[in-house]
């Protein structure tokens, strides 16, 4: 008998996530001025957070803002779940 197993569907990247977006001057201070897809923007912000040890030691889900991140976040501390929402307002 022939096997009737389905091959796993290959996942195509969503075009909206791959479209390069231009960061605002506030965001560019953290990630650089070049246009990047949303996925790369998020990666670069996390690189910055980890490099400067900005995760709250008591609750690692919270990010403490330094001088560059405070204007971006609009407050002293945000949760990792708020991060993409706040950053998306700085992309065009």
Tell me about this structure:
The termini are far apart. Helices cover 42% and strands 7% of the residues. The relative contact order is 0.16. The protein has a two-stranded antiparallel sheet with strand order 1-2. It has 92 residues and is mainly alpha-helical. The protein has a domain at 42-92: Orthogonal Bundle (MDM2), CATH 1.10.245. Residues 1-20 are annotated as: Disordered. Residues 16-92 form the DM2 domain. This is DM2 domain-containing protein.
Strand order within the widest beta sheet: 1-2
The number of distinct helices, counting runs of at least 4 residues, comes to 5
Q: Structural class, please?
A: mainly alpha
How much beta, percentage-wise?
5-15%
C-alpha geometry: globular
Biggest beta sheet attributes: 2 strands, antiparallel
What's the SSE blueprint?
Layout: H1 15-18, H2 25-31, H3 38-51, E1 62-64, H4 69-73, E2 77-79, H5 80-88
Antiparallel strand pairs: 1-2
Domain DM2: 16-92
Protein name: DM2 domain-containing protein
InterPro entries: SWIB_domain (IPR019835), SWIB_MDM2_dom_sf (IPR036885), SWIB_MDM2_domain (IPR003121)
In short:
The protein has 92 residues and is mainly alpha-helical. It has a domain at 42-92: Orthogonal Bundle (MDM2). It is 42% helix and 7% strand.
């Amino acid at each position: 008998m022939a096997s009737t197993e389905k091959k796993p569907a290959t996942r195509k990247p969503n075009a909206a996530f791959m479209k390069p977006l231009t960061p605002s001057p506030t965001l560019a201070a953290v990630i650089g001025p070049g246009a990047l897809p949303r996925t790369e923007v998020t990666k670069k912000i996390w690189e910055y957070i980890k490099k400067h040890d900005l995760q709250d030691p008591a609750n690692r889900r919270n990010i403490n803002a330094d001088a560059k991140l405070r204007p971006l976040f609009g407050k002293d501390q945000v949760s990792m779940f708020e991060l993409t929402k706040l950053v998306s307002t700085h992309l065009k």
